[in-house]
Please model this.
Amino acid sequence: MYRPSEQAGCRILNSEIAHVHARSEGGPRWDPHMSAKENASVDNLIVMCQAHAKEIDDAPESYPADLLREWKRRQVQQCDAAAAAPAALNDAEAAEVINVSFGLDQMVEAVATVVPFSARSRTRGDALELAARQSLARRRIRLAPVPELRKDALLGWMAEHPPPAVVVPEGQVRVLVAPMGAGKSEQASRWWDEGLEVAADDEQVEIPVWLEARTLGSSLESVVTNAIGGDPWRPCRVVLDDLTWLPPATATRLLDEARQLVVVWPRMRILATCRPGLQIDQSERVDVAPWPTDHGAELIRQILQDEVPPGLWTREVDDLLTSPLLTLALAARLASGRSARVSPTRLLSEMAATIIDRERPQISAETWNLFALLAARVIATQAGIPVSALGVATPQIWPLTDSGLVVADDNGLRFALPVFEQHFGAEALRKGIVAVEEAASAASFPLWRYAIAYTVTTSDRQAADAWMLKLARINPAAASWVLDETVRTASPARAWDAASTTWVPAPGRQDETDPAVRVGRWLRDALEAFLDGFGACRPQLARHHDGQLVQWGARLIGDGMILTEARNTVTPDLVPVALEPYESARADGWYRSTQFEVPAGDLGRWQWARDRIRHPLAPLLRQRRLPLPDGSPLEAERLWLLAQHIMRLQHHRRPPTVISAADLRNATDKMMERVNLSVRSTWMSGSVRLDSDDIRWIHARLDTITTDHLESPRPLPDRAGFGKWRWREYSPELTLTILTDVFRDALVGYRDLVDANFPQFGAALGRYSTLPLRVEGHVIMEDEGGPGDHDSLYYTLKPDPGASTATPRVDLTLASAPQSLRDEASAALFRHRRAAFYQPTDQLASLPTGLDQPATAIAYRWLIDDLTNVGWWTGPIPAYG
Model:
């Protein structure tokens, strides 16, 4: 209602209605012309808003009875007119009413604009429906290679044949680990959907939370509480998908947050996924088993229906069917009419192009370049990229997101699947958006390894060889890993031919027209490219003189070749020779000759060059004789061991626990006389074997010794003759003290070995990439009355950011052989480890106090394990360490 005196004054709100009587000063103002009953009747009331009613009550002298009666008369007239002729408001009147009036919906909208959104703002039904739609969307993205018409049917088949169920107990964290495309996210999705079904049936269970690891911009706790709209005191499942997107230190920190979160909120359970490479506690690790081949075969049939090509099921195809992503990529390739004879790397690299060809054939060259630029930024930063960072107008971004390959959200642009990212990362390398020197460097290679492999495997023969030449010179670990990825599926056998020897004459080599010299140059360039990445051990991997690779002599014999090495000549570095037979090389001033078939097939010379280096590298590793910098803790162990061997050879008895430095010098001087008069000398006594290199090494070290005696770098046993096991000669307390020093020396020694001998391998060596590390574990020793055959060491390597690499942290404790601890750790000792960059963190081993070089044995075990992952060691991995 209007206040008559103010025309368009205030509206009367339902909550603010006031009934006002006409009153006189000091009490009710009675109208003398009205009876008492009329004065108190409803008809004599004036309906007003609270503010104006209070105004009249506070100043009644300003509102005489005549004025109040006039107001009442107007109210009655307006009410009668409205009742007699109701009319719709005109536009101006409606706008005025809307401007000052609102109902429940308007109130909710107004509050929502000023109050931050919370998951609790949704009804539970809406939240469950949204979660189900998000799960379906994630699955459809993973089915990107599948034709659209087959996706719904395939989703139904997948629902009927779910992957194995993952078990995550309440209050604990589990991590699914497998290479790219092995089905980690699918298993995590199955576990998440299981939680969604439970939440739909029980309102006391939280709706599960799915988080992309790389999109987390704040603490895990705040993200989870925001997602569920409160503290997770009720049962709750959380998925952290693809920790591999994050730098190792960030991923480790996120896992630590997850472990703390499940302790604080014990009804919560967290499942993370990552590729091999991140260090995971063995108790939390869940390895994703390869698919059964019949499961993959059925998936192919579901996608291709009646178009399955005849003769498809071969052993090579079976290898592809064990990975969900490879199976989908193979189906897409077969659907496009191409052959199934393809390597896994090429198959994955082609998948993005296959999808684009099928779905978006009109994408421009500019858009293709933007894909490559985006991939370069995403791989380098391991995060979503803001649109502004690409330096293009927003409309130019639309084709990226329209393609279905790129996702845009609050965290920026990213690729829907890792395989798309790596595919376009390869494009970035080809186009020079990222230099191969940067991508293959020691620090960057773990991030770029798949993109580099895609680049090599999808190039023609000569281009692939040129890429390998660059990689080998930059980082031999990168080149070796890519070589294994590229040639994992053998190419059709073919004999060597001249076309396989890509040869470009360098300055000063234009006259190398002899076929044998050309092939020799082709092989020597590959060998030298690999050798450039090795350090102090390089002269021991190939014969050198004055720091240079010695001269080679080359001769072709049909499809085979003879290479001979000079003793001391270095120039010219390659000459033709005529040796018949090659054993006569020594008589002509050569050191040695080798005969072999000229390598054929794709990248054949790189396999040959790597094998030629691996052959001399293996004994250096087995015998633990790699060069070390002065002062390395591993040198002290080697010095003491060689001193014992020399004294045993000289005196034919067990060496003393203290060795006279003078006696050792005299014995070594005599042996040096023989070394100086021979090409190579050896000494044998039982299992002890020394050669010229050992004697030269200790002879040089003795010049730096200033004491009169040498002693073992480790304490002597404190309970000699105790038990039948050598390590039982040490008490538990002394064992703990010794092993603390041993592990500290092993960590420093491992770093010294890599720095001195593999300087360009860098982060491609798994443990080196996570330095500094600390050791945590248990020295397990039975009581004195026990047999001692269960004594063991159970330890874990963990990143220790900010710690000193010179004095690593070692935290070992004594344990009385709990069987449960051994059972938990025993699987780690016998694991079959082949995945690139996978470094086991938990180890169960015998006590190294019974070894002559305990720190050396552990450091070399770690190094060999690392070299195995990048293809530079092919023998059995030592069991210890």
